[in-house]
Specification:
The structure is a single chain. With 219 residues, this protein is an alpha+beta fold. 47% of the residues lie in helices and 14% in strands. The chain has a five-stranded mixed β-sheet with strand order 1-3-4-2-5. A hairpin with a 3-residue loop joins strand 3 and strand 4. Helix 4 packs parallel to helix 6 (125-131). The chain crosses the membrane at residues 12-38. Keywords: Membrane, Transmembrane, Transmembrane helix. One of its GO terms (cellular component) is extracellular region. Residues 200-219 are annotated as: Disordered.
């Protein structure tokens, strides 16, 4: 009887502790569930920090259209569905840490930057980086090349819509641009009519490059 009473009193003392442990485990389970299936609810600050906001989108679009006007191409319009698709892929690239194309069937330019200091990217840096390839494009020999494909997609005359996504953890940033109709149709005649020299310039090679942060792109 003495042992029974001792054990019962012991359990009475520990029962609040067991209750706290059960509540803690339940909270952890709920958080992990929402983090897996509803990340915007579980981690709202991360989502807010990694999306391309309206200001970023507008500067991204404006920078495209400045360059396109220089190359006799009509302005692009921002596409809501391409924005959603590009944002989804940018989030994937940040999570995986691997630069690869989405294979979505639209035109696509990718950009990434890494830094030990916090990164504050505006809407123009990625587009400027892609446009730098103009210096290597030969209008007298039109066609696709690995070192000019970002530039040619930016100014591709028959492209009418663009969408953009941005994802960052503060030290790495990924920018995804998606275009419709896709450019870089690998036929010389298509390049000849879609990638035009700057107005008033003879067709040869491009311009001086811009300075910028260390970055990476992928074709």
């Amino acid at each position: 009887m003495g042992i029974y009473i001792y054990t019962w009193e012991y359990m009475l003392i520990l029962s609040p502790v067991f209750g706290c442990i059960k509540e803690f485990c339940a909270c952890v389970f709920v958080f992990l569930f929402f983090a897996a299936f509803f990340p915007s609810i579980a981690c709202p600050s991360r989502l807010a920090d990694t999306m391309a906001d309206e200001s970023f989108q507008q500067e991204f679009l404006t920078t495209h259209n400045i360059y396109r006007q220089m190359h006799q191409s009509p302005p692009l319009k921002m596409s809501t569905d391409l924005n959603k698709s590009a944002q989804s892929w940018a989030d994937h690239l940040l999570d995986s840490g691997i630069m690869q194309h989405s294979g979505s069937g639209v035109g696509e330019n990718l950009y990434c930057m890494s830094s030990s200091a916090p990164i504050n990217l505006t809407g123009k840096e990625a587009v400027e980086s892609w446009y730098e390839e103009v210096k290597d494009y030969d209008y007298n020999r039109p066609g696709f090349k690995g070192n000019t494909g970002h530039f040619t997609q930016v100014v591709w005359k028959e492209t009418t819509e663009v969408g953009v996504g941005l994802a960052t953890d503060g030290k790495r940033v990924f920018v995804v641009a998606q275009y419709r109709p896709a450019g870089n149709v690998n036929v010389a005649a298509y390049f000849e009519r879609n990638v035009l020299p700057q107005a008033g310039r003879a067709g040869s090679s491009g311009t001086d490059s811009h300075g910028g942060e260390k970055n990476c792109t992928l074709l």
